[in-house]
Amino acid sequence: MNKKLMKNVNGKKFDVVIIGGGIIGASTAREVAAEGYSVLLVEKDDFASGATSRSSRLLHCGLRYFEAPKPVRTFMMNPTRLLNALKMSKQAMKARYEIVKSVPQRVNKINFILPIYSDDDFKPWQIDIGFSLLSRFTPNDVPLDYQRIGKSEALENPLIASLSNKDKLIGAAKFTEYQFNWPERLCVDAVMDAKRLGAVTLNYTVAKIKDASGCERTIELKDHAGKTAQVKASRVMVMAGAWIDRVLADVESTMPRKSTGTKGAHIVVKLPESCRGQGITKLNSQGEPFYCIPWSDYHYIGPTETLYEGNLDEVHADSADVRFLLKETASLFPGLKITHEDVISTWAGVRPLTFDENQLKGARNKVLHDLSRHGLPGVYALTAGPIMSHRDTGREVVTKLLQEIEPHGQKISFEYVSDFSLNYADNFYSKFSEQSIKKAVNDEDARTIFDVIYRRLGIGWDYDALPELDVDHVSRIMAKELHWEEDDREREVEKFLRETKKLFDVPDI
Ligand SMILES: Cc1cc2nc3c(=O)[nH]c(=O)nc-3n(C[C@H](O)[C@H](O)[C@H](O)COP(=O)(O)OP(=O)(O)OC[C@H]3O[C@@H](n4cnc5c(N)ncnc54)[C@H](O)[C@@H]3O)c2cc1C
């Protein structure tokens, strides 16, 4: 329990304190602990509650990094952006290979299709070259299955048949894409691995850097019950996603901006059975990538991309997001005939992109910022780390640390496996068992009903199973484990219902 842990860590010194328990902080904690460093990972809410649980869930092949308004012109005018796109896509293909091979149960394979028009910026031969380049980035046993097909064959695909502008359609590019079926679990797994490797991990605890001017850094911790502790660190990694600038401003008010937050929203709809398992990617009216992605019997459509300066703890899809998504869907895929009544759910998140004064909506290149030149020696902050390459990000941090400080402990080897598949039978009823719920609370630090249902057991993302979701049942088992009185239990159920409504409801438009 946190209370005991807070007491134990108070006054301790760690090699590395990581602020932020999203996929980037969690993965870094695992890699750094395995290297033999003493690690404290602190998350102010639950692990994976930030952008990590709000993404488009694509373990994409890197094509996305070449999608830009007027791409040929954009990249010719900005060779650095092209180099970054090449670097990011290479990392994406490497990560795709590694994840599909090591945790195949955490990904779904999707047939993706990219329509090609006669007036596209990229010509078909350029698309061939692009895919051939991508496929060279990894071994052949997780192939892209790239195939360019002509117009009549393309039109056999129901999503292509639903498109507008079919008169200008000249064909399509077919390829295999992968999707994370549960990014939150990957994050929780990384936290649990980190713990097993010796890291101390705290959720529902806010971290604040109190002082980083000398040779030691002091971090103040405060949990949700108001209990506080102070720890010291040789190095601090601020991996607080879109909250990074807030964490840094608390210790250094003149810190230049490091991150730009852009909001991305999705809508969930049910398409005809013929679309099952099929995904499509296209540019929207803003020249930004727009996807229709399969999710069991459903599809999700999006994302949006708008600058976000609002409350980071209250992000949800609003009326403007849903209006935009419906308008784009109607204009790109008129044949799907999607209206507001068809939307069964929504979600939205904020991408923690890298601040770049030349790119209004931020840059997608991942940066590990060394803040020593801003008066914070030994403090680093990471921006724009996608879920896909989280393992590489953790390893890059290890490389950096090894140049600066010696680990106190021994290097430990470990294997990347998904705990969930080891400890739970992956079906709805066993997920709901008393044993699973108790395990989520007692071994995996779940504290709220939302933690259990979405981030430890994953039941919430199964839209067909949702009507059978017995929140009372979950709450009664949790109450026993967490010593909730009846009042507390009722409050927790209400909190869960409020939170799910806020995060997933379909707003009026
Ligand atoms: C709409 C959308 C679509 C996306 N699509 C994809 C995709 O298809 N594929 C892909 O790979 N990536 C995608 N991404 C990007 C990806 O989701 C993020 O880049 C990634 O999740 C960032 O992880 P993170 O750990 O840096 O941030 P987060 O997951 O946001 O974690 C940061 C954590 O820090 C915590 N924190 C903040 N302040 C403090 C503090 N003071 N003390 C303690 N903890 C603190 C927060 O509570 C939060 O949990 C998408 C993102 C969005 C929003």
From TrEMBL:
Residues 15-375 form the FAD dependent oxidoreductase domain. InterPro entries: DAO_C_sf, FAD-dep_OxRdtase, FAD/NAD-bd_sf, G3P_DH_FAD-dep. Keywords: FAD, Flavoprotein, Oxidoreductase. Its cofactor is FAD. SUPFAM superfamilies: FAD/NAD(P)-binding domain (SSF51905). The keyword Oxidoreductase applies. The keyword Magnesium does not apply. Belongs to the FAD-dependent glycerol-3-phosphate dehydrogenase family. This is FAD-dependent oxidoreductase.
